[in-house]
Amino acid sequence: MQKQLVIFDWDGTLFNSVGQIVASLQFAAQQHQQPLSDDAAKSIIGLGLPEVMQTLFPDVPELHSAILDSYAEHYVAHSQDDQWFDGVGDMLHDLKQRGFKLAVATGKSRRGLDRVLAKTQSQDLFDITRAASETQSKPHPQMLQEILSYTGVAPEQAIMVGDSSYDLQMAQNIEMPRVGVSYGVHSVDVLQQYKPLMIADDVTALHHYLVDFA
User: What is one cellular component GO term in this UniProt entry (predicted)?
Assistant: First the structure.
């Protein structure tokens, strides 16, 4: 069945921001005397922020709000150089020109997503965007279901693209075709557990696959 809709994760898939997210999480943890390794910080990228706090700092729920405030302040102050991966802008414009509907399903908050959409001047490229702060966090498929309902597209006519197990599991939960990318958060071995159609090593390969697969 011909694909009509491509749904992208944001951080680590379209936007080269993983390093700054990790650095900001570690800064926030240090500010509140909580140990946090690089691997642990990287592993949760893709979850909603409340789920991040519950996963990384389960023993200090009273600190979650303060840690999140420190994280957000540090991230905004130090993320000026974050930008799309090479080729993402060309890929999105080409897919749009070819008639695809485009969407974003992200673990970011709505405030954070709106900020980076404005930064990349990409608001008009996407038919709909969904953030974890306004729906259930990945890997629950609610944000995908809301995107499908809005666009009027069936799951089998859409494809989810992401760099984490949370992205691919979310799509697998509603039998939506899915593609992984290896340049983001989770390893190829982890992504393969969720039976993606393919795993792209760079944006060029992803772009070609999405065009050919349609």
Answer: cytosol
Model pTM score: 0.92
Alpha-carbon span 66 to 72, nearest angstrom:
10
User: What would the pLDDT profile of 195-208 be if each residue is shown by its tens digit?
Assistant: 999 999 999 999 99
- The pairing of strands 158-162 and 5-8 is parallel
Using alpha carbons only, give the angle 112, 48, 102 rounded to the nearest 5 degrees.
65
What is residue 94's three-state secondary structure?
Answer: helix
Q: How many H helices and E strands in the chain?
A: 10, 6
> Which residue, 181, 203, 30, 15, is CA-closest to 107?
15
pLDDT at 49: 87
Let me know whether 12 and 74 are in one domain: no
Nearest residue to 8 via CA among 206, 197, 152: 206
Task: Give the separation between CA 211 and CA 6, rounded to whole angstroms.
Answer: 11
CATH number for position 49: 1.10.150
Give the Cα separation of 62 and 71 in Å (integer).
16
